[in-house]
Description:
Structural class: alpha/beta
Mean pLDDT: 87
Strand content: 5-15%
Number of strands: 5
Largest sheet: 3 strands, parallel
Number of helices: 4
Distance between the termini: 26 Å
Helix content: 10-25%
Low-confidence stretches: none
Order of helices and strands: EHEHEHEHE
Shape: globular
Strand order of the largest sheet: 3-4-5
Amino acid sequence: LLRERGANVRAHDPRAMANAAQRLPDLALAESPQAAADGADAVMLCTPWPEYRAIDLSAVARAMCGDLLLDGRNFFDPVVVHAAGLRYEGIGCCARRQPTPTASRGG
C-alpha cells in the first residue's frame, strides 16, 4: 500500500531476504537495518527477530532524515528508543507510546 501511494520502501529481514527477493522482486532490499534506515523518514519493525535487539538505535537515528520508529510488534522499549533520538509509536495490542513528546527533526 505504501509503494502504491508513491513511498520509497526498503526492507531488511535477517532470515527472509532470499524469499523476499523472490516473492517481491520490485522491493528494494537492504543488507542491514542501518542501510534500510539510510535517509528514511520513518522505519517500521514488522518482525521481532532477536537479532534486532542488537541494533544500534542511535546509529539508525543518525542515518535517518526523519525520526519516527513504528513498532508493529511492541518489541522495543519506548524509553530506549527515545534516548536514541527517535520518536516511538507502538502499534497493535497493548501498544506502548513514547513517554514524552519531542519536536520532529525535519521541521
